[in-house]
Amino acid sequence: MKNPRWNPYLVGALIGVLSILTFSIVDKPIGMSTGIAQASGACALPFVGADGVAANTYWAKKAVPKWDYGSLFVVGSFLGALLSALVSGSFKITKVPEVWRERFGPSVPKRMVAAFLGGIVILYGARLADGCTSGHGISGSLQLAVSSWTFFLVMFASGIATAFVLFRRRHS
Asked: Quick check: 31 pLDDT over 60?
């Protein structure tokens, strides 16, 4: 527990056990995007009111703000990651990660804008695909869903291509 990097085979096996337990106990797949969409609806409540959220076709259809398995999974994942980082001693608040600083410079606003826009793109894509990385990549692929395997392969290919474009080594 004190090592910041866990054995990937152990983690894979534990995710498999978690998936079996989740399907058995709550009859739902592991996934984040619905819980995050519910949280966005909850954040919109003070601005547009309950009627405004209920009138939104997306929130009304898929993600009515409520405390259920999806929202608890999001909160539990955050708290579990925080606890793991604290126990391993790897927790630190960094405005601009070193990898980003080496490639794009130390600008905090530039990093925040890029992170925000990246979050919008990935959440939009997750909702468009009707599932997120964990929903498709873990739960869907365990069920041998063609859409999930397609999503998973495209996600990895896109991630590799993006990493090559953004973080390629500069020649001196």
From this structure: yes
